[in-house]
Amino acid sequence: MQQTVDVVGAGLAGSECALQLSDRGVNVRLHEERPVRMSPAHHTDRFAELVCSNSLKSTKPETAAGVLKWELDAMGCRLLAIARACSVPAGGALAVDRERFSDAVTEAVSSHPLIEVVREEVTELPCGPAVIAAGPLCSDALFSAISQAVGKGSMSFFDAAAPIVSAESIDRSIAFSQSRYEESGLGDYLNCPMERDEYDNFMDALLSAERVISRDFEQADLFCACQPIEEVARTGHDSIRFGALKPVGLTDPKTGRRPWAAVQLRAENTQRTAYNLVGFQTNLTWPEQRRVFRMIPGLGQAEFLRYGVMHRNSFVDSPHALDATFAIPGTRIRLAGQITGTEGYVEAIASGLLAALNTYADLAGLTFPALPHTGAFGSLVSYATNPTTVGYQPMHVNFGLVPPLEDAPRGKDDRRRRMAERAREDMSAFVRERRNLFPQAG
After folding, report:
1. Strand 333-335 relative to strand 130-132, pairing
2. Residue extent(s) of CATH 3.50.50.60 domains in the chain
3. Average of pLDDT values for 400-408?
4. pTM: predicted TM-score of the whole model, two decimal places
């Protein structure tokens, strides 16, 4: 492969794409605008920086997120292996030490002999072949160029990140270690229990707190999985008690019973010196975050290492603006990552892998890969490329996208177990049949 592929953006999708292409003998020129131009959400110039949560979601094999991880492993995913090497305890989820993960990805990409890293802002679309994985916060100039190329199919939504607090500032006489439904009391999460009156007072403060962006959001502007906690709270007094603050499966060792509500804290690094407030994406001003979130039992003296932030994310109406390989029609330029509306960390990695496969197939004169639509990955791609999709919105992998089973069991758990088994069988067959695309896959 003598031709060079330009990959724009060294986030999750761009880094995975660059590694996959170069592993197949393709020369890659990877463009990253940081530190020349910093985005509103990033803090470093490292690759694959996680800007919201540090969780890559469930590893349980019967969940959609678990199925996706299995499929990516079968396809030889690079970043998922790095994530596991940089993991921190998170119960049934895969969470990573952000800095270790980003450093490891940066090293893997920068040291590859077929990848040239160019630190510059890209303001125009390359001639191709190219992959645009600049993310939903790409520069105005680049997004304008993309919008011009795809027409007026561009939309936007708002995204938010949760705050992080210092471990030493958490009151351990109140917060207790426990994962849900665990008996040992040595769980991966810290839990801040709330009695009913504490929850009611917290809700009153949360709903009356000052926000950075003061206008009321329309629901279409907010991606449901990343809605600020105060926006979720506005939908009903008990909404977050059945959501981010649900106490099910937890027992407060001080009382011997389940609390009325519970805020969970997840470790940010292997040293457990920092914790993020799970589900606490927020649009509150920084002073209001200090005031309101310190009302949480155990966080009365919390030291905030990073405050929650709100930022605008943009994405393209992929089913109607791109072709089945996520290419801009009539070009050899493909889009990958969250800018296509495949929302989520692992989904972004998967999107980068698929962009690499499609680009490699294009260069090698192979038929484009048609993923089995019975799996988590393939069903998400089917949704994102189906021109009959109406009101396209960012989407995580989920079993609602997967075709139903024939003779499906009645029980939900049994149905999902069967769907996961079918997905694994079909992906294994796909990789075997397309060995020309997966020379290094297991």
Report:
1. parallel
2. 4-157+313-433
3. 87
4. 0.74
Task: Give the residue among 375, 362, 384 at the shortest CA–CA distance from 421.
Answer: 375
Q: How far, in Å, CA of 172 to CA of 370, rounded?
A: 51
Q: What is the 3-state secondary structure (H, E, C) of the chain?
A: CCCEEEEECCCHHHHHHHHHHHHCCCEEEEEECCCCCCCCCCCCCCCCCCCCCCEEEECCCCCHHHHHHHHHHHCCCCHHHHHHHCEECCCCEEEECHHHHHHHHHHHHHCCCCEEEEECCCCCCCCCCEEECCCCCCCHHHHHHHHHHHCCCEEEEEEECCCEEEHHHCCCCCCEECCCCCCCCCCCEEEEEECHHHHHHHHHHHHHCCECCCCCCCHHHECHHHCCHHHHHCCCCCCCCCCCCCCCCCCECCCCECCCEEEEEEECCCCCCEEEECCCCCCECHHHHHHHHCCCCCCCCCCEEECCCEEEEEEECHHHHCCCCCECCCCCEEECHHHHCECCHHHHHHHHHHHHHHHHHHHHCCCCCCCCCCCHHHHHHHHHHCCCCCCCCCECCCHHHCCCCCCCCCCHHHHHHHHHHHHHHHHHHHHHHCCCCCCCCC
Average pLDDT over residues 225-246: 90
Per-residue pLDDT for 219 more than 60? no
332-347 pLDDT, tens digit per residue, is: 999 999 889 887 899 9
Residue 360 or residue 441, greater confidence: 360
Q: Can you give the pLDDT at residue 42?
A: 65
Q: Where in the chain is the domain with CATH 2.40.30.260?
A: 164-308
Structure tokens at 235: 């939908």
Q: Can you read off the two tokens belonging to residue 113?
A: 């002999």
Provide the CATH topology of domain 164-308. Elongation Factor Tu (Ef-tu); domain 3 (2.40.30)
**Structure confidence by residue, pLDDT tens digits, 284-297:** 999 999 999 999 99
CA distances from 116 to 111, 169, 199 (A): 9, 43, 53
CATH architecture of the domain 4-157+313-433 equals 3-Layer(bba) Sandwich (3.50)
